[in-house]
Amino acid sequence: MQTADLELVKLTKRYGDTLAVDAIDRRIPGGTYVCLLGPSGCGKSSTLRMIAGHEFASDGAILLDNRDVTHLAPAKRGTAMMFQNYALFPHLSVVDNVAFSLKMKGVAAPERRKQAAEMLELVDMTAFLDRMPEQLSGGQQQRVALARALITRPQVLLLDEPLSALDPFLRIRMRAELRRLQRELGITFLHVTHGQDEALALADEIIVMNAAKIEQAGPPRDVFNTPRTAFVARFIGGHNVITLPDGPISLRSDALRLTAPGSARLSGKVTGVEFQGMHVAVSALMPGDMEITALVPEAAFFSAPKAPGEAIGLDWADSDAHRLEA
Amino acid sequence: MTASSTTPPKPRRAPGLSRHLLGWLLASPLAVVLAAFLVVPIATIAVVSFWGATEFSIYPAFQFDNYEFLFSSPVTYTVFFNTFKYAAITWICTLLIGFTVAYFLAFHIRNQNLQIGLFLLCTIPFWTSNIIRMISWIPFLGRNGIGNTALIQMGLIDQPLEWLLYSDFAVILAFVHLYTLFMVVPIFNTMMRIDPSLLEAARDNGASGWQTLWNVIIPLCKPGIMIGTIFVVTLVMGDFITVRFMSGSQSANVGRLISNDIALLQYPSAAATAVVLLCTVLLMIAVMLRFVDIRKEL
């Protein structure tokens, strides 16, 4: 399978006076599962839609396989998009939905039905060829939308919050399936999401966006363990941002130890205790209204339980503290 | 409240009334109105259509003379053919114009206020009556009217066009003018419900503008087109005044046949024609509804 690099060069999107995407640069090697992660309004969807060709780039360029596709029609770019609400044609059956792009190309009916059926087999929907979209569950609709996007043989598949409409159980199943498909097909998946767990679970590379800019990009483990800024540390979850005299640091919640007050680097009052199964989440209020959460192994916590209102100390190993850019 | 909070709330029900009876009672006002103003008049027409008539009187009877005369007269067939012709041509024109206007409003106007404004603009002709809108064509279309004068002055024609007024052209022009909005409104309504991401999806799948129109928009607009069609067809089939005015009494449709009979006090004959027209229109609508499911739109 061929792999094509996707490159964004000073890509910019302006809506009137507001800057939605501010000159972002990134080169994504072919065959990568990329998650564009960020809060709503950070410009991740605009970026995706510009790559798809459904939004004009105000400035900059999009290169796919070293070919400038910035001003090409969506279907001429080698990209395919899977829409957030799946956007299945309600008047067409499953197989006709998948065969739509072939019909547009003028492929004869028996041939396009055959190809669509093959594609539906890939997403395990063979039993539903002649159903109408309204007769399918959310997960099934998503598989059909996937098949419809993949039948165009894209080099990059663009997924706009593909899992957000599913219930939590199905979401976890579908994300495993997306990952499997991406590995089998060997093409780049560019997946927009605001869920950090989804991004960590799926991605080869995470691009965290905030306020129209790329805040940090890299492999999920790097982004998680060494967040560059306080924003990334907070957004990626599981971190406490602590302002020390010589600058802010991030500390993973599970790197904090509960100690007696006074002997530790920080001391404060417990504000909440939450049993989470393997861990107990202890939240505490530190001087300066700093809210800190520590994840303590369940057994360790119950050997010396704390109740809300109790004074505690919090300590950590120096090697666990990660310095943030101010 | 604290004491009874554990017992399940009892369904509220009027004492002594079963749900069944309550339903009938709720439906009865509308049923009475419909019975009084729809069912009874139509039943009366159906009954009278079997009555007998002489030049100066009508008498109750149960005979098929009116229908026999109607179906044996070649005039009936000519007039019905004419009515279908008007309906068909008007339908095609209103559909083309109505769809285009609705498409422009729904997909090309991005600003919602402008959209509503332009839509209301379409309804301005309805501020005045049908008759006045019809009559106002006469000075435009007449032999020495604005239309002919303008064409002559532009040097396009030497002689005034005779067919502009008092012709089938004038009749259909008036119909299209009167009824296009009935096509615009339901089609606009269905178009506004089309998810814009469907159009993007079509583009993403390589559909050109025309392919999107033909493969996505038109199929999804079918219910609206069908509702508009029902409006236009029933209005044109039942019309008599437009045909009389705009054709200068030179053409006839079924409506005029009925109105002439009434003018001559031939009520049984008029009633029989009305029953046949009603059945024809109902049959047409029944056939249309078999092709498109409009329930989603209601």
SSE pattern of chain A: EEEHEEEHHHHEHEHEEHHEEEEEEHEE
Work out the helix count of chain B: 13
Let me know the largest β-sheet of chain B. Answer: 2 strands, antiparallel
The end-to-end span of chain B amounts to 42 Å
Which stretches of chain B are poorly predicted, pLDDT < 50 over at least 5 residues? 1-6
Helix content of chain A: 25-40%
The CATH class of the largest domain in chain A is: Alpha Beta
Largest interface: A-B, 25 and 17 residues
Structural class of chain A: alpha+beta
Count every helix of chain A, treating DSSP H or I runs of 4 or more residues as helices: 10
Which secondary-structure class do the elements of chain B indicate? Answer: mainly alpha
User: What is the straight-line distance between the termini of chain A?
Assistant: 44 Å
What is the annotated CATH architecture of the domain at 76-254 and 269-297 in chain B?
Orthogonal Bundle
Q: What is the spatial order of strands in the main beta sheet of chain A?
A: 6-7-8-3-9-10
Shape by Cα distribution of chain A = elongated
**Can you tell me the CATH topology of the largest domain in chain A?**
Rossmann fold
Strand content of chain B: under 5%
Mean pLDDT of chain B: 87
Describe it.
- The complex is a heterodimer of chains A (326) and B (298).
- Chain A contains 10 helices and 18 strands.
- Chain A is of the alpha+beta class.
- Chain A has 2 domains: 6-225, P-loop containing nucleotide triphosphate hydrolases (Rossmann fold, 3-Layer(aba) Sandwich), CATH 3.40.50; 244-323, RNA polymerase II/Efflux pump adaptor protein, barrel-sandwich hybrid domain (OB fold (Dihydrolipoamide Acetyltransferase, E2P)), CATH 2.40.50.100.
- A 6-stranded mixed β-sheet of chain A has the order 6-7-8-3-9-10, with helices on both faces. In chain A, strands 13-17-14-15-16 form a 5-stranded antiparallel β-sheet. In chain A, strands 2-1-4-5 form a 4-stranded antiparallel β-sheet, covered by helices on one side.
- In chain A, a hairpin with a 2-residue loop joins strand 4 (59-64) and strand 5.
- The model of chain A has no long low-confidence stretch (mean pLDDT 90).
- With 298 residues, chain B is an all-alpha fold.
- Chain B has a domain at 76-254 and 269-297: MetI-like (MetI-like fold, Orthogonal Bundle).
- Chain B is 70% helix and 1% strand.
- Chain B is built from 13 helices and 2 strands, in the order H-E-E-H-H-H-H-H-H-H-H-H-H-H-H.
- Mean pLDDT of chain B is 87; it is low at 1-6.
- Chain A binds chain B through residues 52-54, 73-76, 80-81, 83-85, 87-91, 100-101, 103-105, 148-149, 152, and chain B through 195, 197-198, 200-208, 211, 215-216, 219-220.
